Amino acid sequence: MSDADTGANAIKLRRKAKGKRPSYFSDPDVDRLLSMIMALTGELSVTRDRLDTLERVAASKGLFSSDDIESFALNQEALDARAQRHETLFREVNRVIASALEDLEAAPSEEYRAVVDLVENDDAV
Amino acid sequence: MTASFVEQQHHDALPTTNHDELARQHFVRSFKEYLVAAVHPGLKTAYEKRAKPNFVAKHQREPENIADVGEVMRDDPHYQAWSSLLRTSQEMMWSCTQLPVERTIHELAASAQEQSQTHGSLRLDPELVIPPYHTGVDIHCQPGGYHTEYIPSDVAQGAIYDRAVYLYAMGQMGGDNADMGDSTVAWLKQEYPAFKPSKILDMGCAVGHSTLPYASGFPEAEVHAIDVAAPMVRHAHARANAKSLDVHFAQQNAESTDYADESFDLVVSHILLHETSSKAIKNIIKECHRVLKPGGWMLHVETPPYEGMSPFDTFLFDWDSENNNEPFWRKSHSLDLDELAKLGGFQRHSPIQVMVPSAFQEAQRTMTFQGGDFGGGGVWFVYGCQK
Question: For a tag on chain B, would you pick the N or C end, based on fewer CB atoms within 10 A?
Fold first, then answer.
């Protein structure tokens, strides 16, 4: 494996093809979002492939096999830890939805512009 | 699409990839296969059950051409999703092939020079003007097109293209991406067993993936190959050396080359014509005629013309023209090719237009021509003429 050409002199290739990017949905943001979802799916696949490699290397070195993973029994501590992690994951992913609800439940907050006015002009005599 | 996974044949000019870079490339290949096998077939259903009835209700007639089909398909949710995903897959294909090249760009340039010592030759022309049909937009969305150079002796665009062609065709052109050349050579030998070319020219050769079959198929012949882009011919020369084949590469425009009149027995091109222009395609046919010896053959391998296809099939096959930066795709698939040959000087013999079966039979194909399924037809369209 070669060394990366990194640092200040690293060459950056052009990443956007010359020419207008077409959009297909009535809102171009949907096209952009779909593109991001596929990129994320790609990165998930890369991670999954890395795990697969890990299992295969481990098996070839006699450390553990994929069967060991399939037959692994979760004890109570593991079950609890995972459930906790899932909850955190959902809370993080759905943060924007929860925040909106929090806003709705809280006392009406001041308009953002009003706060800007306040902090900019609170020295007025 | 559960044919066994044929990986690209390794050669020393290919960029090295780390674990995750390779996994990213394999994902893109699988993504493209999924679109072909699982999303594309739904387009026919969407058209028959939703879009076409909408058109008929509005116009009291059946859709007759690309514009008619497009009018209703552009609003169809399944077409929108498929197009958006296909465009995304194309962009991801370039991105995942760029990453390892960007990381090793200096090393690739140095090793290409080192590897290019023993076989064939390379002539560059720094003064060559890159034609406007290559600089207008980046063809098939490769950022920087064929010609952009980032460093001296750069091979980046060629190294990226070499790997991307494999992903683009999903392995349907074999481990060497050689199917267009292999198929044409096999067809030539079968149809014209007495034809023994001693000098061959491949126009618009890119990385020489279609050129090498002529070098191995006609080992007694002197093989030349040209492309307007320096990074392509540099990489092509290193690639040919890696495969120990003698090809003389030169950076030249196929519209006007520096080869002598009547110097070749065979002039070929592979998916070149649809990446040119109305003016350039005429110049190229004329140039083929000029450099061919009397009795020599010109053969251009392409995807088939639209003529005879249903409006729906034509619409899908036409997808690249507006969605994949292929500005000459539509017009080039609707040209009067017989007239084109005559204009170029081929008047003694009638031009041929034949479907040549793919030499790479291991692939499981859809056997259709459609956007996003290059090589899926299982045949190549060959247009040519004897001088």
Answer: N
